[in-house]
Amino acid sequence: MPTTAPAHSLSDVTASDSTLRRFLHGLPGVDAVGLEARAASLGTRSIKTTAKAYAIDLAISMVDLTTLEGADTPGKVRALGAKAVHPDPTDRTTPMTAAVCVYPDMVTVAKEAVAGSDVKVASVATAFPAGRTALDVKLADVREAVAAGADEIDMVIDRGAFLAGRYLKVYDEITAVKEACGGARLKVIFETGELSTYDNIRRASWLGMLAGADFIKTSTGKVAVNATPANTLLMLEAVRDFRAQTGVQVGVKPAGGIRTSKDAIKFLVLVNETAGEDWLDNHWFRFGASSLLNDLLMQRQKLATGRYSGPDYVTVD
Predict the structure, then answer these.
(1) Residue 312: inside a domain, yes or no?
(2) What is any Pfam family matched here (predicted)?
(3) Is 253 annotated in the active site?
(4) pLDDT of residue 6
(5) CATH number of the CATH domain containing 140
(6) Is 57 a catalytic residue?
(7) How many independent structural domains does the chain possess?
(8) Of the residues 83, 111, 138, 217, which is catalytic?
(9) 255: which DSSP letter?
(10) Is 12 inside any structural domain?
(11) CA-CA distance, 232 to 192, in Å (whole number)?
(12) Which domain does 213 fall in, by range?
């Protein structure tokens, strides 16, 4: 299945809407059957006990522990931050999660909750999850989160503009948001479940990377179809090929629907077999999740003690 981008220079592909369109539509078409078959095949790999223990700890360290509900309160965010820093208070060898992810108005609370730790604070912005508002409002949303102390910004693209073929508009919005981020890392969310085709997901991946994304992210977790092995595999191929062509490494974040340790390990196999070991680190790969951490903790204790914990072992998110 061909995945390599056209060999010409990328320096001028964003000069105009026509050059950007020509580049994106010149990317190799996706063999959907082949993509899904490879994702399914990699998902059947067996993992030995020692490798499983390593994979579970690695997955814990890659979780963006997330709460994005209208009913979020400071107390809930503080509890989330405490859990991110000490996922299992009875076992301090448990890794911290990578980040907590909250709305901009909760960033200050989250920063206080994880103070003194290596846990990052990520904030969704740009009128999450729909992304349907004016650019100046989106930029104000980003600046508010960054001013409050966000280490990372998760933005959503304008899917309507993308699907209408207005690629330069989407590119310009991403670059403007990237500038507004200052020193914060930028994750660009495509909402893959709304992009309809694998070809569109490949185009969105390259568009996001060309515009300066530090991460490309599958989903908001707010639609019916979120992260899948196939769409994540496709995005991993894109970051691999982008680095091969430009020397720039970009992270990947599948989000939504990843709930079990078994699922998480399948995704880690995809990373290792597609992008390679360089991406097996939370600087380059994340899970956007809320309930996943609980199952990882349960499985971690099972490996350590030989038995599953009772229902009160983990907190309910």
Answers:
(1) no
(2) DeoC
(3) yes
(4) 42
(5) 3.20.20.70
(6) no
(7) 1
(8) 217
(9) B
(10) no
(11) 10
(12) 17-305
